[in-house]
Amino acid sequence: MKFVWKSVVTASALLLGGAALAQQGEVVKIVRIDPLTGLMGPVGTNQDKSYKFFAEKFSGKGNPAGVTFEFRTIDNKLSPTESLNALKSALDSGVRYIAQGNGSSVTAALLDAVNKHNERNPGKEVLLLNDASVDPDFTNSKCSYWHFRFDADTSMKMEAITTFMKNKPDIKKVYLLNQNYSHGHQVVKYAKEGLAKKRPDVQIVGEDLHPLAQVRDFAPYIAKIKASGADTVITGNWGSDLSLLVKAANEAGYEGKFFTYYAGVTGTPSALGQGAAGRVYQVSYLHSNMGGQMQQWMNEFKAKHNDDFYTGSIPRIYAMLGAAMAQAKSTDPLKVAAALEGLKVNTYNGEIEMRRLDHQLQQPLYVSVWQKTDAKHTYSPENTGMTFVPQAEYPNYVSSTPTSCQMKRPGK
To answer: Alpha-carbon distance 312 to 322, whole Å?
Structure first.
């Protein structure tokens, strides 16, 4: 697979002809604005290492434009205000590619600021590369020409979850527990809609929203879940809010299923332990045992950092930027944005497409389950002796959801 990936890049370069030389050797600076400290700091730190790891893989001959990617993270402490200060600092230093993913409230603040900056500063436009912020509004009512999302949004992932649950008759009573911000609200909305269409017999027996990155003891929430009689919990929680939740569930002896978005993220695999085997499911664009090029990258990342790679949107960002810059014969964000629209690229699990209508990446999704490693499934997150084993794959057309985006494009 390593050689297949290289052949894709080489083929792209040949197809683009002279375009590959247009920016050869040019440095493209990317700044990510996300937490490196606080309860969610471990997630941001892992992603900082991931961006730097793949910057090396995709620089120079690793992309058809021949550009060199230079990356750094500014700690925003998960604060929209800190994020706006960080954005100003990045722009003042000449950076024109901003990445972000943790916290939809941060995304909303940055998107508004980027839109205003680009309107006021023609010729100095900036792109916002969204690697993990999944509120569907960002590619619907709040869609922007300057924003591109490389993760699947909340509705896409819930489409996969509820499709999977359709054929699980043992699921009868569901509890919705989520973080009290836009992503958590959207998980609730789309879970209710999806279950009503595909499993109208399922009862929603409880619903709770809790503060983001503030709860340190989830025992009271688990007590409510047990008292409700729920056999399944659906949660969009991430970071400490998920690892502490499953830890409390294990300690209280809760034996129901969990359907999650981020069970593979830093700290959660260790919290799951062996007691969660067969009960915790994750929907994502990758899993622990992808095979091929992704497996090689995951193994190499772990050997280098003693940590697990899980933010699969990162190599896609670099792959699509390189291809778009080669096509545009420029690293200018205005021209790159135009080239990204409708762009198709072959990546570690097939062809992906940046939908022109709303700048939402169309990609395959997987539902995997937590279980012990075996001869076929050997990769163990956080060296737990456990792993995520794929149960279902949903191609682009299945996981895709419609958009209401009415995008305003430059010059129109």
So the answer is: 17
Instruction: Give a three-class secondary structure readout of 298-359.
Output: HHHHHHHHCCCCCCCHHHHHHHHHHHHHHHHCCCCHHHHHHHHCCCEEEECCEEEEECCCCC
Pair (132, 21) in one structural domain: yes
If one counts every other C-beta atom within 10 angstroms of the C-beta of residue 341, the result is 16
* Cβ 244 vs Cβ 216: under 8 Å: yes
Query: Is 88 inside any structural domain?
Result: yes
Q: Which pLDDT tens digit goes with each residue over 332-382? A: 999 999 999 999 999 999 999 999 999 999 999 999 999 999 999 999 999
Say which CATH number the domain at 45 has: 3.40.50.2300
Closest Cα to residue 361, out of 31, 131, 141, 137? 131
The tokens for 36 are 């490196």
**177 and 238: one domain?**
yes
Confirm whether 98 is domain-assigned.
yes
Instruction: Look at the chain and report how many structural domains it folds into.
Output: 2
Domain that includes residue 317, residue range: 2-152+291-362
DSSP structure string for 90-115: HHHTT--EEEE-S-HHHHHHHHHHHH
Map residue 177 onto helix, strand or coil. strand
Q: How far apart are CA 209 and CA 318, in angstroms?
A: 35
User: What is the spatial distance between Cα 280 and Cα 221, in angstroms, rounded to a whole number?
Assistant: 17
Q: What is d(CA 280, CA 389) in angstroms, rounded to the nearest whole number? A: 11
Confidence band for 22, pLDDT divided at 50, 70 and 90: low
**Same domain for 197 and 112:** no
- Model's pTM, two decimal places? 0.92
Between CA 200 and CA 53 the distance in angstroms is 45
pLDDT in tens, 28-57: 999 999 999 999 999 999 999 999 999 999
